[in-house]
Amino acid sequence: MTDLLPLPVSRTEIKKNQSERKKIAFERAKTAKWYQGKLDDIDAGKLDDPEVWGQIPIVTKDILREFDHADFLANFNVAPPEDIAEYWRSGGATGKPVFYPRTFEDVNYALESWARSYLALGIGPGDLCHISFPIGIHPAGQIWARSAHQMGVGMNWVGAGNAVPSDAQIDLILALKPTVLISMPGFALNLVNIADTRGIDLAKSSVRTVVCSAETLSDAKREKLGRRWGAEVFDVFGMSEAGLMGSECDAHDGIHIWDDMYYCEVVDEETGKILPYGEVGTFCVTPLYTNNATPFLRWNSGDIVQIIEQGESSTKEAELFTMIKHAARTSGFFKIRGVNINHTEFEDFMFRNEDINDFQAVLSTGEDDLEHMRVLIEVKRGSDETAVHVHVTSEIKRIFEVTVSVEVQELGTLAKAFESSIKAPRFVDERG
């Protein structure tokens, strides 16, 4: 790692750094058009007081999506053209994307934020990574790959499945023998499922660490990935509005946030009141270094989390940094014939079945004008398809109280369909 922003030596140093950098972030935000008139009555000398800090307006995705690109730049960008190094696309597979300008200084600090993940994950010289994130205007893939070099970590710049098909990625893993796979969890599952159609067991490959981001990593999905890859599975957390913000460590009990680089808080979803550690609310972040072009204050990512003061990991990162845990909640659900089916709960149910490689749930309106739910499944090679079909059908009826049509697909069908999407569309609503 470079000396641009070395790890702090203590939490006391972090608090001091946060206090200094919040003032810089505040003054920088005051130069942006959107903030003009919104910060005038806030005492910049008292930003460490929660009552004062809480007066700063929260910025949400909906606010940004009100603007077209030109208006967004006019309202939030404070950097001159000669300072812009690149643009980052906002995350997520739905909604209107936003493209954030990033200065050369922003990118340098972003490289530091991603580079820290290797230390926290125990990845170092001698490791070779296979990265399956998109390599392009979304920052995760290209910044993550670039940051490996400053850590002495090998990196194969492979890209997502829509650029390099799954079969080709499997061949690369078998030939080049990486020790680490960096991927969205859904695509990591696609790879093992397609490998299974070829009679290849990737649990016997060279990969011993799987690093995931950009999708919810439930316990069931983590267990399935670990079993199918024969690897230890880690989660990291970041966003285009800030950078890579933190990583799990060896205890896998939450994400340790780089508190010296990002000032984080949890607020009540209804009142906006800042909540103490341990309470669940919506996550807000103020970038303290990657704010030279778009100086966001209190950016609300929409994640529902709690901040934990101290985790159980044995690493330096766990000693220094607080930890966030995502709440077991989601706004994603199907409502079919009056029954709510929570996406996360349904996904966990399916992935805990060792006989199922993958699935897709599809809602449609039939010729009878009634709602129908089809569950497409791929059954693991060697398992009894008829028995799995009967079991899944009856268990969905018992647990979720809805009758569905379960359809067994040829091995590799779903994985092939999913690889063309940035995020696997496991829940599809085709109702008219």
Give me the secondary-structure topology.
Layout: H1 11-29, H2 50-53, H3 61-64, H4 69-76, E1 84-89, E2 99-103, H5 104-121, E3 128-131, H6 139-150, E4 154-157, H7 166-176, E5 180-183, H8 185-197, E6 209-212, H9 219-229, E7 232-239, E8 243-247, E9 255-257, E10 262-267, E11 281-287, E12 299-308, H10 316-320, E13 323-326, E14 333-336, E15 339-342, H11 343-351, E16 356-365, E17 371-379, H12 385-400, E18 405-409, H13 413-418, E19 427-429
Parallel strand pairs: 3-4, 3-5, 5-6, 6-7, 16-19, 17-18
Antiparallel strand pairs: 1-2, 7-8, 8-9, 9-13, 10-11, 11-12, 12-13, 14-15, 16-17
Quick description:
The chain has two domains: 1-327, ANL, N-terminal domain (Rossmann fold); 333-429, 2-Layer Sandwich (GMP Synthetase, Chain A, domain 3). It is built from 13 helices and 19 strands. It has helices at 11-29, 50-53, 61-64, 69-76, 104-121, 139-150, 166-176, 185-197, 219-229, 316-320, 343-351, 385-400, 413-418; strands spanning 84-89, 99-103, 128-131, 154-157, 180-183, 209-212, 232-239, 243-247, 255-257, 262-267, 281-287, 299-308, 323-326, 333-336, 339-342, 356-365, 371-379, 405-409, 427-429.
